[in-house]
Amino acid sequence: MENIRTRVVRFTDQTGQIHIGLDEGEVIKRLPGEWRIADLLRVRVDTMREMVATASAEIPAESVRLLAPLDGLTEVWAAGVTYSRSRDARVEETTEPTVYDRIYEAERPELFFKAPAWRVVTDGQPIAVREDSAINVPEPELGLVINAFGEIAGYVVVNDVSSRSIEGDNPLYLPQAKIYAGSCSVSSGIVPVWLTDIAALEIGMWVYRAGAVVFEGRTSTSSFHRPAAGLVPYLTSFMRFPDGVVLSTGTGIVPELDFNLAPGDTVEIRIENVGSLTNTVLRTAEWLDSVGS
Ligand code: DO4
Ligand code: MG
């Protein structure tokens, strides 16, 4: 899988101060002033590109801690049933199959709120499964980073961790199946839109348990049922996102119903030319005790 190394990142330095910069592998070039990721998403892509080009002061990559690349008022939303595999899996798990068949064919996509910036975790931090859900799954998804003007500014890897049995019981439980502590993880760097093309990117996911791979799946963004960019106007035409928004584009990899994501598992997701995301799973109560929000 090919990978672009240049990514816009948010990090803490050795004094604990938060900065943003351009990660180029060995070094991170800091952006001037106290800019936040949100400031890059308040402007059009051409201005963002000029701002990113001013990155200069070099910091060794090993001396920083990367944070989730979202701050301010940025939100994460997600689309559902955008690949045939997702439609088939929902039809199998639900008490209401026609809802999913209809949304797959409908012009208007399924979009739902996932998390505010402050509730998002990143690479190396724990994710969580709810104690009141019998079947849980990780969902590896390409995230579109969209600015305040509705333009796609970059791409991230998203894990839309989901409580499959809660949604399966009744689709009206979707917010509880999708929005809870530790359910949203985003890779620690944003690949700027001008560096990659998302037409046919390979996506892979591996779940490790006690050192062994217990699930492995692959897909490609070329299998999208609808163009990812076509989802954006449904979100941005009817609401303002002054600090931008991440729109996760749905999963094309869903394990069989006999698979259950368990506390202690590690989930690794890779998207070609976008990045990787690795998280270990806790129960929500443990997650709330250790991470706290
Ligand atoms: O309707 C359920 C949500 C489906 C979803 O999250 C996905 O397809 O990725
Ligand atoms: Mg999803």
From TrEMBL:
Domain Fumarylacetoacetase-like C-terminal: 107-281
Keyword Transmembrane helix found: no
Keyword Metal-binding listed: yes
Alphabetical list of SUPFAM superfamilies matching this protein: FAH
Annotated InterPro entries: FAH (IPR051121), Fumarylacetoacetase-like_C (IPR011234), Fumarylacetoacetase_C_sf (IPR036663)
GO terms for MF: hydrolase activity
Keywords: Hydrolase, Metal-binding
Family: Belongs to the FAH family.
Name under which the protein is recorded: Fumarylacetoacetate hydrolase family protein
Organism field: Kibdelosporangium philippinense
